[in-house]
Amino acid sequence: MKISLISLGCSKNLVDSEVMLGIILRAGIRVVQNPAAADVVIINTCAFIHAAKQEAVETVLEAGRLKEKNPNLKVLVAGCLPRRYPQLPTLLREADGFIGPGDINRIVTVIRAVVSGKRPVLTKTPSFLSRTDTPRFKLTPRHYAYLKIADGCDNRCHYCVIPAIRGPYHSRSVVSLTNEASRLVKEGVKEICLISQDSTYYGHDRGGRFQLPALCRRLAKIRGLEWIRILYSHPAHFTDELIRLIAEEPKICRYLDVPIQHISDRVLKAMGRNGSDEVKNLLLKLRTIIPGVALRTSLIVGYPGETERDFRKLYDFVREWRFERLGVFMYSQEEKTRAAKLKPQVSEEKKAERFDRIMTLQRSIAGEINRVNLGKTLRVLIDEISEEGVGIGRTEFDAPEVDNLTYVRGDKLKKGRFMSVKITDALEYDLYGEAE
C-alpha cells in the first residue's frame, strides 16, 4: 500500500501532517510524493477562512479526478474542514473517508478502513497533542523545524472559528517539548520555531501562569540549537519576564510575531480584542527593551462596520510605527462567528481597495528598512541552493515561508549552514549579498 499526503494551511497544520506521516511510516506503510502513484491520497485541510476552504475543496476534487485513471484510488480528507463541517461526508462524495485534527493518532486505522471499502468518519475530537514518543516525519528542510507547544484557543475573537474547530487551549509539558526539541537537534535541526494559536499564553492552562519563559530557558540549554523563534504571540499575554528573556538570551531571535489586527478602538472592541493603548504600550516596550527587534504583525481590513476613518487610523498607525514585517488579510465572513452577524458588512471592492493601500504603504516602508542594511554584515541561515548556485537564506529577523529572503553568492555555500553575509543590494522584500 502506498500513501501520498497533501498538506494545506498553516505551520500548525504542517506539524499534524508530519505526525500522521510518522505514524504511517512506523506502521510499515510506504509514502510516495506523487498522488497519482498512491493507493490512498490524504489531504490535510484548512478551514480558517473562505479562501482556505475553497482551496481545500478544490484539492479534494482534483484528487477525486485521479480516480478516472485509477478506480481503486481512495481519497481521505483530514484536518479542520471535516471537523468544522459535520455535513461534509454528505456533500463531498469524492471522498472515501474523513478524519479530524483530534484523531490523527488513529490515521492508520482509518486508512485500513478506507482500503477495505468502508467510509469512516472520525471528526468529533477537536485536537491532538504529541507526546515525547509520538513519531514524526519532518517535511521542512533538515535544519529547521516547527514545535507545536499547544493547540486550541481561549481568546474567542469575534471573527475566528479556531476555538470551535480546535477546542480550548491546552499545552504540552515543558519536559515533553524539551525532549522533542533535543531529538530534533540531534537530527540536524538548528532553528526551532515555537508555534500555537497563542504562544504567549503557553502553560497558563497547566497551573495558571505563563510558562513560555521557562520553556525557552530549557530550550536555550540544548547544545547545537542556535535559533529559537517565537511565532503567534498574542499581544495580551506578554509578560515582563518574557520580554527581558528575549532581550538577554542570544539564542532567541530578536523577532516577534505580534498580530494586532487593528488599531481603531471601535473596531478592536467589535473584534473582542484589547484596546489600542495596550497595543501601543506593548509595542513601545518591545522596541525599548529589545534593541533591534524586528516586529511582524498581521492586520484585518474590511471588518464589519470599519469606516474610512477607522481605516485611516490603521493606515496612519502603520506609517508611524513602521513594522519590519507585516501581513494584511481581507476580512472573511465566517458563519457561526459573532462578526458574521455584524452590520454593515464591508463590500469586497472596499476590502480590496484598503488592502492595496496598506500593502502599497508597507512596500515603501519595507524598502526603506531593507536599505538600512546596505554595507552591513548579517548572519544568514542558508535554506536552499538554487540551480545557479545562489544561496537562498534568512536572517534572524525572518521566519520561514512568510518573510524576506536573502540571496547569497560565494564559495562554500551549503544548505543548513550559517554564513556571514555582506549586504550589497536591497529591494522591498529581499536582500542580496556576498558570503565573507
Structure in a nutshell:
With 436 residues, the chain is of the alpha/beta class. It contains 13 helices and 19 strands.
Observed structural traits:
13 helices; 6-stranded parallel beta sheet; pyruvate-formate lyase- activating enzyme; 436 residues; 3 domains; single chain; Rossmann fold; globular; OB fold (Dihydrolipoamide Acetyltransferase, E2P); alpha/beta
Write the layout of secondary structure elements.
Layout: E1 2-7, H1 11-26, E2 30-31, E3 40-45, H2 50-65, E4 74-79, H3 80-84, H4 88-91, E5 97-99, H5 107-115, E6 121-122, E7 144-148, E8 150-151, H6 162-166, E9 170-171, H7 174-186, E10 191-195, H8 212-220, E11 227-230, H9 240-248, E12 252-257, H10 265-271, H11 276-289, E13 294-301, H12 308-321, E14 325-330, H13 348-371, E15 377-385, E16 391-394, E17 405-409, E18 418-426, E19 430-435
Overview of this structure, please?
The protein is α/β, with parallel strands linked by helices and 436 residues long. The protein folds into three domains: 2-122, 3-Layer(aba) Sandwich (Rossmann fold); 144-371, pyruvate-formate lyase- activating enzyme (Alpha-Beta Horseshoe), CATH 3.80.30; 377-435, OB fold (Dihydrolipoamide Acetyltransferase, E2P) (Beta Barrel), CATH 2.40.50. Helices cover 33% and strands 22% of the residues. It contains 13 helices and 19 strands. It has helices at residues 11-26, 50-65, 80-84, 88-91, 107-115, 162-166, 174-186, 212-220, 240-248, 265-271, 276-289, 308-321, 348-371, and strands spanning 2-7, 30-31, 40-45, 74-79, 97-99, 121-122, 144-148, 150-151, 170-171, 191-195, 227-230, 252-257, 294-301, 325-330, 377-385, 391-394, 405-409, 418-426, 430-435. The strands form four sheets. It has a six-stranded parallel sheet, sandwiched between helices. A six-stranded parallel sheet has the order 7-10-11-12-13-14. It has a five-stranded mixed beta barrel with strand order 15-16-17-19-18. α7 (174-186) packs parallel to α8 and α12 runs parallel beside α13. The longest helix has 24 residues, at 348-371. The mean pLDDT is 96.
